[in-house]
Amino acid sequence: MIDFRPFYQQIATSPLSDWLETLPLQLKEWEKQAHGDYGKWSKIVDFLPDLQAEIIDLKNAVKSDRTFPLSEGEKQRIIHHLKQLMPWRKGPYHLFGIHIDCEWRSDFKWQRVLPHLAPLKDRTILDVGCGSGYHMWRMLGEGAQMVVGIDPTELFLCQFEAVRKLLNNDRRVNLIPLGIEQMQPLAAFDTVFSMGVLYHRKSPLDHLTQLKSQLKKGGELVLETLVVEGDAHTVLVPTDRYAKMKNVYFIPSVEALISWLEKVGFNNVRCVDIAPTTLEEQRKTDWLENESLIDFLDPNDHSRTIEGYQAPTRAVILANK
Ligand SMILES: C[S@@+](CC[C@H](N)C(=O)[O-])C[C@H]1O[C@@H](n2cnc3c(N)ncnc32)[C@H](O)[C@@H]1O
């Protein structure tokens, strides 16, 4: 099982120390009711060898390697373990010559987001809905002091720990398996990211308020989410599924989203990027069995989802507390 004690020790002397009032107890409770396969997945992390990387690149990719390459047999053994943690959605990872070619080219999103951010160097960062943690490693690559991800999906926690093990067990990045709504307001982070989460929340204004409660005064929010075309009064509430996803609740226009952020008290709200999701960014690979974007679009008109809604387009919005 994954041991969170090193994280508690690490935050005890940091601006996150107040979190120790609630987190250890919450994680004890979480462990009792974690996903039935959590024990199996966490054992796979234990089975991975302790390899020492001589080369780590988090600035241009998420990559580790050593000068003396792994034997083909060692490589295949590691691939076998990692494939038991499928589906791998967010990546890619390049670890000791193994390319985990995930469904999403998360590096594309990072390229859209990064140029607009306040420099991440020395910052304490929260990544809400961090998935397997791809962007957290890239934040570290930009010189962040500490990165904490929060994501309730146990499989992603185990993928994160597997990747961490193959990145010299770096402890400056940590993933806590809770939902943002369970997190005590800390007002302690310099930057809070929420990417790909807002449309999954039943109450988007509450989500924005929770994000604000984690930021220091003056800190930066990085919000990335699905948007639709339209004016300040346009919000798509899918009647059933959106792009075959059943947990999509609110997709606002950029103008509506900006007004929501202002309503909950953010300043300096601005949209810095809008981009349609392409078939190069989200596609089927050998690292997932499931369907991917091509199956979620109208086969005769890729500007529409299979349900007839606007095809996925995502915006990046920045704001300050
Ligand atoms: C579409 S993925 C986005 C992953 C990554 N942030 C990215 O942009 O590529 C949404 C993530 O939000 C997580 N999530 C769902 N509900 C959440 C909640 N209440 N709090 C935090 N994360 C949540 C899911 O487990 C999933 O990993």
TrEMBL record:
Keywords tagged on the record: Transferase, tRNA processing
Key word Zinc-finger present: no
SUPFAM superfamilies for this protein: S-adenosyl-L-methionine-dependent methyltransferases (SSF53335)
InterPro entries listed in its UniProt record: CmoB, Mo5U34_MeTrfas-like, SAM-dependent_MTases_sf
Binding site for carboxy-S-adenosyl-L-methionine: 90, 104, 109, 129, 151-153, 180-181, 195, 199, 314
Reaction catalysed by this enzyme: carboxy-S-adenosyl-L-methionine + 5-hydroxyuridine(34) in tRNA = 5-carboxymethoxyuridine(34) in tRNA + S-adenosyl-L-homocysteine + H(+)
EC number(s) per entry: 2.5.1.-
Biological process according to GO: tRNA wobble uridine modification
Pfam families the record matches: Methyltransf_9 (PF08003)
Enzyme class: transferase
One Gene Ontology molecular-function label: transferase activity, transferring alkyl or aryl (other than methyl) groups
Function: Catalyzes carboxymethyl transfer from carboxy-S-adenosyl-L-methionine (Cx-SAM) to 5-hydroxyuridine (ho5U) to form 5-carboxymethoxyuridine (cmo5U) at position 34 in tRNAs.
HAMAP family named among the record's database cross-references: tRNA_carboxymethyltr_CmoB
Assembly and oligomerization: Homotetramer.
PANTHER family named among the record's database cross-references: METHYLTRANSFERASE, TRNA U34 CARBOXYMETHYLTRANSFERASE
Family: Belongs to the class I-like SAM-binding methyltransferase superfamily. CmoB family.
Official protein name in the record: tRNA U34 carboxymethyltransferase
Protein species of origin: Rodentibacter rarus
